[in-house]
Amino acid sequence: MLATASQRILGQSFQNIRPAVSVLRSYSSAAKQITVRDALNSALDEEMSADPKVFLMGEEVGEYQGAYKITKGLLEKYGPERVLDTPITEAGFTGIGVGAAYYGLKPVVEFMTFNFSMQAIDHIINSAAKSNYMSAGQISVPIVFRGPNGAAAGVGAQHSQCYASWYASCPGLKVLSPYNSEDARGLLKAAIRDPDPVVFLENELLYGESFSVSDEVLDSSFCLPIGKAKIEREGKDVTITAFSKMVGYALKAAEMLEKDGIYAEVINLRSIRPLDRSTINASVRKTNRLITVEEGFPQHGVGAEICASVVEESFAYLDAPVERIAGADVPMPYAANLERLAVPQIEDIVRAAKRACYRSVPLAATA
Amino acid sequence: MATAFSTAKFSTQPFPLNPTSTTSHDSSIVFARPTSQFLGSTRKFRLTSSSKFNLSRRSKTVVAVSDVVKQKKSKSSPSLLITKEEGLDLYEDMVLGRAFEDMCAQMYYRGKMFGFVHLYNGQEAVSTGFIKLLKQQDSVVSTYRDHVHALSKGVPARAVMSELFGKTTGCCRGQGGSMHMFSREHNLLGGFAFIGEGIPVATGAAFTSKYKREVLKEADCDHVTLAFFGDGTCNNGQFFECLNMAALWKLPIVFVVENNLWAIGMSHLRATSDPHIYKKGPAFGMPGIHVDGMDVLKVREVAKEAIGRARRGEGPTLVECETYRFRGHSLADPDELRDPAEKARYAARDPITALKKYLIENSLASEAELKTIEKKIDEVVEDAVEFADESPVPSRSQLLENVFADPKGFGIGPDGRYRCEDPKFTEGTAHV
Questions:
Q1: Best of B239, B403, B408, B425 to disrupt the A interface by mutation (most A CBs within 10 Å)?
Q2: Phi-psi category of A65—alpha, beta or left, where left has phi over 0 and alpha has psi -120 to 50?
Q3: pTM of the shown model
């Protein structure tokens, strides 16, 4: 049963998956289904329409309709002056975006994947994140850097790294990572309206997934607060924190754990920086056990920071050591079976939860 | 209206080995420069003499300042390049730059200034020649050698000195330092420590100017951006990326190369396959000019044309200013690798002495007037030091301020509620 479940899930990367449980629990009854891709596209469209200072910049965002079709239709609607196809010069065009943001325009810079942002990371950190501080508040940088982050399917080591912990360690940046369509719409709108640099980490495999959204989400003034996590599923036995694609896995793991009598509370972080420490700690104080799930490399990762935060603030409430589930500590392999081993799977989360709850099962190395 | 900056004219001229020959297509170049072993000083001023070039009428007077004197005797009525007011203004700005930097050195050795301090002595002609032609809304982006750019742009000497001392009254409240001078009011966008980092930012500022005019329909927005950087930066990838995009999108920017021949201890000739930086402009479709950066009047003439071009919407220009820094790369640099003979040669071409000579010999100003200016600047700099000395250091609570523009940094507005809960948060809605 577990094997078939995992095969079914992996095989459906590019098809619509309906997380049935979360639909019923999390959203109001007026159920319109939109994909994450459409959610992002509509958010960009509405923000560009509302504020003429917002413009898009990136490789293939215009005539190609977006490398992952996120910016589809925007060139036709807003023209080439507001949707700019750039040459392949990440450092150059990111710096241009930062310079434009210094003057109050609101660029949305797209990286085809965040791996390419490493070519521009000097501008993201040194000229965007640090500028408000270095200029003592004179120069704020209302820019958004967005693009897919983390592993896709079979794209190899240089296209699969997760950058959440790298960017989240830098003061002056806000780092957001949506999971479903509601998150995508709300957080992207908040990011574009925010006066500070925001790194917006999407996930390529989630673009095609559809989720139900309420009418409130579809309203053009909808937006979500930056810095607040969401409790996707309430529970009382163990807290599981996750972001982006891992939220889906955590929810499925929670369903499976329910059958064994363990009620897991799943927290969708939404905002990696600032991290919603109060929600996480409140949850841990309730359940007394914590599992952090992320796709990126384990050392100095998001889970490490959450663990430290919980140990500092809620040590007396912990009944078991914090379990940290992360990607394997290797560059991403190409072979499909190895790739499956290098990324956390639902079974890993289930096993970790059981370890945290019972402590009688011997610790096994995380896959 | 065609300008002289047609791209074809510059790149093909081979480097003249015999410095006394005039170049073939520049009938306007009328004299032979004194010879020198070094690349920079043997190059000619390369503006074309096409008839549509509106400077060609005056090109005979655009020569080394010291040679105007010789020329004057052979002409009946030379036209002067500047008026008395302009001349005194330029002189004052250059003297301010020099005096300020000398004071910085003194303060550093007395321990009042610390960290990295990069001084601009010798290069004042470039800063003054370009920045004094700008309006307040035009912007300047610089490198770590930015004190004098800040002063020329209008940032008060007091604010710059306090910033260097790390006091809370500095232009960045002491949070930026020597290498990160920012001023929103004067449109000085830094102050970047990484070479090449400021070039894309400057290109973005120019992009904004064009965007404001074309998309936001602010018809009178013709703001120009100047990007200052050095010879070492011209080997960096970001430089080429921005030359490409600026020419591609015809942005109102002037790329000003302050070629002082040395990147810390690395000679430009050892680091660069083709040391003629101005040639790299035409490769990207923009004019590339070389000018004697020790002569403020020449720099000013070239600057007028380049800035005018940008303001008219004709696109970017690359200007290479041959200049020299009299001091080391920074105050920590022992400066052992540069030949003292080279330093002496350039010291003889000190831009301030040259302008002084020009003003006096063309009867634009008297010695006494210039002395008054120098005295005034001395007082300004002394006052700046006193002000900085007496200013308080930042309070402890300032450490955590200004990380975000958002006061609490969480998407929370000044009234303490989440921004998204404020009904005025979306100004204008769209129908999807």
A1: B403
A2: left
A3: 0.76
